[in-house]
Design goal:
Chain A: Keywords: Membrane, Transmembrane, Transmembrane helix. The complex is a heterodimer of chains A (242) and B (320). Chain A is an all-alpha fold and 242 residues long. Chain A has eight helices and no strands. Chain A has a single domain, classed as Arp2/3 complex 21 kDa subunit ARPC3. Helices cover 71% and strands 0% of the residues of chain A. Chain B has 320 residues and is an all-alpha fold. Helix content of chain B is 69%, strand content 2%. Chain B is built from eleven helices and two strands, in the order H-H-H-H-H-H-E-E-H-H-H-H-H. Chain B starts with a helix and ends in a 12-residue tail after the last helix. Classes of the chains: A mainly alpha (242), B mainly alpha (320). The interface between A and B is large, with 61 and 64 residues.
Chain lengths: 242, 320
Amino acid sequence: MGFNGIEGAINEPGQIPWEIVVSYFVIALFLAFYLGKRMGGLKKFTTVDLIYIGIGGAFSVVWEFYVGSFLGRFLPSTSFVDIGFWGRLVIIFIIAALVRKVGVGMSTLFVFNLLSDMFHYGFGGEPMYFIYESLTYGLFVDLMIAVTGGHLFGIGRETASGGASTIRNVAILAGIQGGLLGFLWAIPDPIFYSAFISPFLYGGYVNWAHVMFHLVAFIPGDVIVGILGAILALRVVKAVGQ
Amino acid sequence: MNTVIVNLISWFIVFYGVALPVMIIFGVIRIAGFKEITRFEKGEGLLYRLNPLTKVALGVGVMVVASVTIWWIGALLTLGISLLYLTLRDGLRKFVYLMALVFSSLIISTWSVAPYVPTSILSLVFPNPSSYHVIWTWPSYFSVMGYQSNLTEEALIYGIQIGFRVTAVLASSLLLALTTTTSDIFRMFTKLKVPLSLTFTLLVGVKTVPRIFELLDSSVKMQFIRRFGEKPAPLRPIFFIYGGILGIVPTMIYLLRGAKTMAISADTRGFRASPKRTEIRELSFGREDYVILLVVVGLLILGVLANLLGFGRFIPYVGS
């Protein structure tokens, strides 16, 4: 028994083999940077980008620990609804839409983690959570930015003609990308956390029925909030005047 | 017992767990209180003079001990750390806010675990399920909400164990932000060789957390001034919460708009002009720092001793 039950156990029954996890990290990171470089989404952060990321991290902390956690108490405890997580999803989408450079997703979640350690958790379970949160949720956003060449949610493309139909098309495109990202955000918690990190850190047992149930339970809500989040991000970007 | 009474009491307990913490948060702390217990204010006490690294060490020490020991050690740690708040500026007020936060976190953590924990998990800590003390039997339809059929004393202890673990860490981690200037946190991270851009981003975050509460507070007040909450008094808390939710997006846009001004002012001061910063004032360790570090070592020894004496934690090491 190590500290806090952290064991570093691999090859537990039912656990995802560590080779797959490591190769995911390596390939996804490589893809994000390679595609970002090729399609033009990989740029250096300016000072204002850093500030956006800081504000995004702070907002996520306030939402997840002080607002969402209390609002969530009014709803029945079910796997289908997660107010805290949904708020964070929307906030990260907004920050990503403002910055639109590969690395913004990972950095925002990294800062969120550091801030939540400072204000709430007190540095327990680190550095595993930095790796887990940044390289799953954050990396998905960065991959989307890389694939769209820095035009996440179609931002920056609509200026060509700018008519009413273009604005509608951008909103639809944003909705599709947001929905896809929401779908991806539903995966790490059941698959990564329950079937790899939990046994790795705490020696938890893997119950694939539990994993599959949660996966199916998370997807609908996350997809819907993803779509709404992307559309909200479009509006916020306009209001901030990017 | 009469089924009506059983139902009434059961629902009272449920609302106690759900609504009381929220009522405390909105009644005692309010949004302005959150601003005060997340923001640095100049002061004179011991904690203001400590090196920020010492405060981090204290926080980590408390977390380690609270997570490996029995619930009442966590409770004592929470109390000890909370008393330190009395040495802060406006200490009594901060202490009251913290107590309200601690109490509501405790109820939330306990009640989000105790009614749901199955006997299979509980039996890992309390080996003999037949000896459990049943406190309350829920009506059968409560199982739809995931409730176990009986609430036992053991399940409650299990929940309180998790609760005190959270509160001890919460109280100690807020101390750093409350008593350290932004520049000192900057110096600490520079000392730890954290890259300059990450440190900067992080500090923007540290500064922004209390600012969000401040802006949300103003936003709700403005809405009430504009006759938003002019409803019968019992409905007012609901409008208060609704007003807070309505204020979130405008608050966010306001802060994000301000980002440009902040960036210009950082850039005009030569931020990132050279990769390294030079320090006018170096962080140093004084006698008080060594005393606190000794306390931290003492706490860790206490953690080991408690485990040897059979006062280890009541939470089994399983995940799901």
